[in-house]
Structure formats: C-alpha cells, structure tokens
Amino acid sequence: MKHYRIWRINLGWQILIGLVLGIILGVIFYGNQTATMAMQNIGTMFISLIQMIVLPIVVSCLIVGIANMGDIGKLGRVGGKTLIYFEVMTTVAIILGLIVGNIFHPGDYINVHQLHGQNISQYVETAKSAKHSGLWSIFMGIIPTNIFKSLSAGDMLPIIFFSVFFGLGTAALGKKGIIILDFFRAVSEVMFKVTNWVMKAAPIGVCALIGATVAQMGINALAPLSYFILLAYMTMAIFIIVVMGLVAKMFKLNIWHLLHVIKDEMVLAFSTASSEAVLPKIIDKMDKFGVNQGIVSFVVPTGYTFNLDGSAIYQSLAALFLAQAYGIHLSIGQQVTLAVVLMITSKGMAGVPGASFVVLLATVSSIGVPMQGLTFIAGIDRLVDMGRTVVNVAGNSLAAVIIGKSEKEFDEEKSQKYLASIRASK
C-alpha cells in the first residue's frame, strides 16, 4: 500500500518533476541537434493532442450554455460586461508594465552591442501585415463566411460568434431543440473524458518542451538578460496578487481560493507556455467551482483573444526596456501613445503564433527602436512566455468568476464544496 501511495502523486507534482527532468536533459544535450529535435517533436505532439480537443469542447459547451441561457438580452449584457472588464484589466496591465519599467530602468544595465541577436524573420512579415489591419478588419473578422474554414484554422472569435447564434437558434426551437442539446452535451462529456486521458501525458510533454528550449539556448544565454526576466516575473506576480487580488476582493472572492483551484493548470501553462493546453480543464473547473456553464463557455474562450494580461505586461515592459537599452527617452505623451497602440494592436494579433512578439515588432518602430533590437530578447521570449501564459490563464479564470458573480450566476455553496473536495484529495 505504501508503494502505491508513492506513485499516486497528483498531476501538478508530476508536471513539476517533468519540468526539472526537462531542464536536466536540456543541459545534458545542449547543442545536440538530434536530441533537441526529438524532444521538440515529442513536445509538439503533446500540444497537438491538446489542440485536437480544444475546439470540440469550446463549441459543444458554448452551444449548450448559450441555449440554456436562452435570452439574447442577457447574452448582450454578459458580452458587454465581459468586453469592458477585459479592456479595463488589459489597460491596467499595460500601465503596470510601464510604471515598473520607469522605476527600475532595466534597459540601462544592458549593452546592446555585446548581446547576440536571434533570427526573427519568421515574425517580421506577420507583424507588417497585422500592423496595418486596423480595428475594422478585427470586427469584420469576427463574422465567419465559412465556419468550417474557421474551425480548420482555429480562429476562436468566428467560432464563438457562430456557436452563440447556433445556441440561441437551438433555444428558440423549444422542444425540438432538446435532441440537439443532448447531442452537444454528450459531445462535451466525451471530450472532457478524452481531456483526462490526454493530461496523463502532460509530464512527458512538459519534460520534452522544456528540454528542447534549454538545449537550444543553454543556461549561459540567460545571464545578460536575467534582470529583465526577473523584473518581468516580479511585475506579473504583482498583477496577480495585488491587482487581481483587489478585484477579487471587490466581488467578495478570495484570490488564493481561485489560485488553489487552478494551480495544476497554472503549472501546466507555465511549463508548456501554452494557454490552449489548459483551456479544457479551466472550462471544466470553473463550472465545478460554481460559475454558470453558459458564462464560463463564453467568457473563457473570448478571453483568449481579448484578455491577455500577462502579454500586455510583457509588451509594455519590453518596449520600454528596448527604448532604454538604445538610450531613447520617452516622454509621458509618447508612453501614453505606446499604451494606446499596444491596446489596439494586441487585439488584432491575439490569434497569431508568437503573438506577443509580433505585437512588439509592430509597435516598437513607433518609438524609434530599431527592428534588430528585438533580436536581443528573441532568445529569452520563450522563458518570459511561460510566465505571461500563467497570468493569462489566471486572468481568464478570474474573469469567469467575476462576470458570474455580477450576473448572480455563481453558486457559493457549490464553490465551497468543490474547494473542500480539492483540499480533501490532497
């Protein structure tokens, strides 16, 4: 029995062990292209498994949740609240990054001529095309001309748009729509079961992804930029504990309770640097935590485009860091302009690979930073990405609870029971 207990460690600890083993393997195989490629391929396979289940869960849960909500007026109210909340939190995150950058001046300690740049050509064209897209293209892109094309491309906003209308249409059918609801409810249950199976491979996927990152970069590459990395993580911690903590307190929620519920998902998000890796479990847990399923299914996927708080912190802090490194003084007016540009640009590029880095490419030229300046932080982007992904996940989880509470669609009793069950399972 004792041996059985030893091996029944929870998923969070398994992922942490995978993280440590990955770092060790990365150090051992540093510079070994064959081993690095093998680890990268294994990690990519795990991320692909996650991507395989994300869209069926989002579509099925959203259709069922919206159909149960049934009221287009209520949906409009929830949508309005959600977007306002996202915009306020993202703005606060950008401002926080600028404040920390102005206080600690991370760029003053860097000699750009001694840093070795990384190749960023893969992001340049994306940034150029996205930079000129504008707000109208963002709004027009929400409406899918072909839902199957949107599903194959993984475009979240058009998928949400279609699912919302499909759910409302199903609710309008009355009794005839019950068979459709039963089908999608069964689909969501099947996909959550598949999610549990996929999560068993998470420690292996984490080990491979971290191992490949360390093997490519090497530990020595971190030294010149370690102060910026530490400052970025400190700022993200302040945002979660102070900013999110205060917002949670305003709605009579203990932020530590929420973080306790999603801690395994935060560890997984940190290890994989992928928000998608935890999307199915976050939807499931917020539902179990007491938030109405319709609100969870709408708020969390929408947040993956509009509520990237960790990315907002990184973008503003990195932009200021690069300006300081090049000796460019930014006035208050220029920093306000930078914040506005980041707010708009980030919404238009949320769905592209390496979105945070692409946003920086599209905006730093407006403050006089040379394009090659970003090559200096390209190497450590993955490491900071791990931290900002955690903030994004925590921010979207909190958003679901806040919107649920504002709509009086949060079950306090269910929340306490679920929290107690998590504590008991430890």
UniProtKB/TrEMBL annotation:
TM regions (residue ranges): 12-30, 42-70, 82-104, 156-174, 194-219, 225-248, 317-344, 356-378
InterPro entries attached to this UniProt entry: Na-dicarboxylate_symporter, Na-dicarboxylate_symporter_CS, Na:dicarbo_symporter_sf
One Gene Ontology cellular component: plasma membrane
Record's protein name: DAACS family dicarboxylate amino acid sodium (Na+) or proton (H+) symporter
PANTHER family: PROTON/GLUTAMATE-ASPARTATE SYMPORTER, PROTON_GLUTAMATE-ASPARTATE SYMPORTER
Lineage: Bacteria, Bacillati, Bacillota, Bacilli, Lactobacillales
Keyword Transmembrane: yes
Keyword set, alphabetical order: Cell membrane, Membrane, Symport, Transmembrane, Transmembrane helix, Transport
Subcellular location: Cell membrane
Topology versus the membrane: Multi-pass membrane protein
GO molecular function: symporter activity
Predominant cellular place of this UniProt entry's protein: membrane
GO biological process: dicarboxylic acid transport
